[in-house]
Structure formats: structure tokens, C-alpha cells
Amino acid sequence: MRIFHLSAECYPVAKVGGLADVVGALPKYQNLAGLQAAVVMPYYNRKFVHENAFDIVFQGTTLLGTRRIYFEILKEQTDTLGFELYLVKIPGLLDRENVYSYPDEKEQFIAFQIAFLDWINWSGQTPDLIHCHDHHSGLVPFMMYHSALYRRLAHIPTIFTIHNGQYHGAFGWEKLNYLPEIDFYKTGLLDWNGAINPLASAVKCCWRFTTVSPSYLQELSISSNGLEYLFYVERDKGTGIINGIDTEVWNPETDPMLPEHFNPTTVTKGKQKNKEILCERFGLSVDKPLIAFIGRLVSEKGSDVLPAAIERSIKEHGDNVNFLILGAGDSATELSLSLLKQLHPQNCNVFIGYDESLAHLIYAGVDFLLMPSRVEPCGLNQMYAMRYGTMPMVRSTGGLKDTVIDFGEEGGYGIRFANVSVDDICVSVTRAAVLYKDSRKIQTLRKRMMALDFSWDRSAKEYMNLYESLIPKI
Ligand SMILES: Nc1ncnc2c1ncn2[C@@H]1O[C@H](COP(=O)(O)OP(=O)(O)O[C@H]2O[C@H](CO)[C@@H](O)[C@H](O)[C@H]2O)[C@@H](O)[C@H]1O
What we know:
The chain has helices spanning 18-32, 47-51, 105-122, 140-146, 198-205, 214-220, 228-233, 267-282, 306-316, 331-343, 356-365, 381-387, 398-403, 422-437, 439-450, 456-470, and strands spanning 2-6, 36-42, 54-64, 67-76, 84-89, 129-133, 158-162, 191-192, 195-196, 208-211, 238-240, 290-297, 322-329, 348-352, 368-371, 391-395, 415-417. By secondary structure, it is α/β, with parallel strands linked by helices. The strands form 3 sheets. It has a 9-stranded mixed beta sheet with strand order 3-4-5-2-1-6-7-10-11, sandwiched between helices. It has a 6-stranded parallel beta sheet with strand order 14-13-12-15-16-17, sandwiched between helices. α1 packs across α16 (456-470), α8 (267-282) crosses α11 (356-365) and α9 packs across α14. Bound molecules: adenosine-5'-diphosphate-glucose (ADQ).
């Protein structure tokens, strides 16, 4: 079965967040299970692209409104990532360094999708299924089924996976002419609330959509930035499949980004060594419980509550608890965190920015990972943390609810709290600080977490079952 995954991000080519991790891992595990899964993404002027060799496998021109654009499809020569990787390169549009936030972002992603469809159409390829991820590829199902240009592809099933339902990629109707000639009677399938909404269109037009956890599927009908009714009406098309993690990349026994490797037997010593290195670098004490936050500093992640919660916790615990933050995003939160670091240099440090290897060291070296998310479609950080013997402290929502059981319950291993509030976070910090003193219990819980199976094998199988239900002949 030949599958194309379409995504704006893919680790290690270009990563902004968890979307990249999933698209960089799922196809690899699908291929190991016997599928032929490939990834198609925009070309980025980045390290991976410079360090690997590519062939131009297709060249074409297409129209974006009145503008004729030239595009190339590049294929990485050796399939080094465990799957075929294709990049869509469009000079002046898809050849830049960053993934998001350019003023002509809409044009970039529309051109990406059109170039992909033109390529498979004109090169005579007929994949068994096309799997689109998030709104950046959300117009593909509509164009395949309602543009005469792509009639040859109209029988191919499409799956749309929602990693983040807060972002829709919506734009005004004045840009309709960017799309190839479409069936005018079907324009309602593009619309939500008076705009062209790629996420809504994908949910309406795809054969099936998935969310990255079962709880998130339920939550979308209650809160999805205006699409609640759509998710309610289309609920029977949706399936929640929890993400896996790439256990080859995230392996504390072999991770090249860790100064000290460890396994469940050597976890206490291994984590202590990594903690020492981390504390030395950030001027923190190894003897105190160390709680970290890693992620985008945005409201979805609840990061705006962190400064007040950390400040109060430090006071409540008479300086006997330490915090380390790695992230970037909202400038007001960045500023408050930086001030906090100046006020409490012995108890709190902050690294504003993106640093993949520091993230690995933090997962390995800290005792607890705090995730006070308002919205968390799946969350990968808590799974990375547990794989590295670090206890997650999570707000009970979305995928966090589906993957973390409170240690107060039978067989539990994490800390859960109900609200994104200073009060709830402080209570969980207290629970963490008390637990930290019980080293035997901590050791038992670390081993329990490290024994959990968050590998892709299970989730890849669930996607496979879904694909098979759409293509009965395989
Ligand atoms: N400053 C920084 N430096 C280094 N590394 C950093 C970093 N900030 C974030 N990261 C890394 O980026 C990834 C974030 O993954 P998440 O799943 O938490 O986030 P995201 O919200 O982007 O993804 C969305 O898609 C994923 C995948 O489906 C869902 O799990 C999630 O709930 C949904 O919001 C992790 O690998 C984390 O270590």
C-alpha cells in the first residue's frame, strides 16, 4: 500500500513542535510494518537539506492565481530517515529558512498543495491513500474531489489528522482564485464563517479524520476555536489515535545528546549524573526537586500561569524546590520568566529559545515535567519524560488525560490536576516535593514509567486498520 503523508514539518528536516516528531516517525514504523509510506513537505533552506543529497524527480509549472510558478520535486537519495522524503521547492516561495509566519504564508501552503497534486497527477502516480496533517495540507481533499483538473485522483481516499485544532489557516474569499478551477456548486465545502477555512474543509471533504488522542476528539466538539458544531456534525467520521514516540530517537540508553546513558536498572544513578550537569550549567542545586517545563510559550500550553505559580511555589517551599524552563513564544511570558530568574537565581532558570539537545538533557536530568496545558491534543513531552524516568505533572486534558495516571491511583505513575490555575499547580508542586523525599517510592515509580510502552507499533497498527477499512482490497 503506497501512502503519501503531507506535512509542513518533519523531524529532523524542519521542526517547530510535535507535528514534526509524528511525521518524522509514523512513516518509518509504517514502512517497517510493510507499507510504502513517503513524506512530502515544503523545501526549507536548512541544515538537513544541505547535508543530504537530493535528486530532482519532477519539474513543472503551475498557476497560483495569475502568477505562473515553477516548481521542483526533490527526493532525498538514500531514504536515510526510513522513508522516501520529497521536498516541494518553489523559488521565491518555498525555499526559505523558517517554517511559519511569513506574510505570504497562505500563498506558500496553497502552492505547496497544488504543486503536490500536479506532480502526482502529471507523473501518473496513483497512491492508495493520501494522509494530510493539519491545515497546511487541508485543501488537498477538496481539490482532489472538486477540481476537474485532478479528476484522475478523485477516487483516492484521504485521511486528515488534526494535531492542533486551534489553528485553521483561514483566509478571505478574495484568494479563491489561487485554487485551480473548481466546481462552483461545491464552494460551501471550503467555507466556515464567511472565510475559506482549510481545516474545516478538510474535515468536511476527507474520507476520515483522526485526532491524536481519543479525549481530544471529544473535546473538539466543545472547544475548537469556532468549529465546535462542525466537529459535532462530523463526529462519526472521526477516530482518536494516540501518538507514539520514536523509541529509537528517544532512548536513554543510546541518546547521543545525553552525557550519561541509563536504563530502568541504572535510572537513579544515570538521572543523578545528568541532573548534576544540568544544575551546574544553570546554577541550580542537585539536592532539591527539579521541575521543568519545555514547550512553546503560548496560551494553549498554559505557560502564562507559570511565572505566578513558580513564584508562589518557591515561597511556599522556603526555596526548597527548583524550576527550569525551556521555551519561546509569547513575549510577555518570556519577560515575566526572565524577571523571575533574576529574582530567584538559586531556584529558577530560564532558557528562552529552541534547543533540541538541551530538551533531551532536561527530560533525562530533571525529576518532574510540568505541563499545565489548556489544550493538549496528545502531548509528546509527557511520553518523552516518562521514557527518561521523569514524572509528568499534567493538567487533565486531551492526550495528557489519556496517557498519565495519577500515582495516587492503582498502578499510577504521574501527577494530575484539574485546572490551569496557580492554586492547582502549587498543590501539585507540593505533592511532587513531598514525593521527592521518598526516594524508594520515586525509584519504583520511575521504573514503572520506563516500562510503559509508548512506541509507535501500537498506533501505527491503528492507522493501518483505518487505512485498510478504506481500501478493502488490501
Ligand atoms: N524550546 C524548545 N526547545 C527544544 N524542543 C522543544 C522546544 N519547544 C518544544 N520542543 C519540542 O517540541 C515537541 C513539542 O511537542 P508537543 O506534542 O508538546 O507539541 P505541539 O503543541 O507542538 O504539537 C501538537 O502536535 C503534537 C503531535 O501530534 C501533539 O502531541 C500536541 O498535543 C499538539 O499540540 C517536543 O518534542 C518538545 O521537546
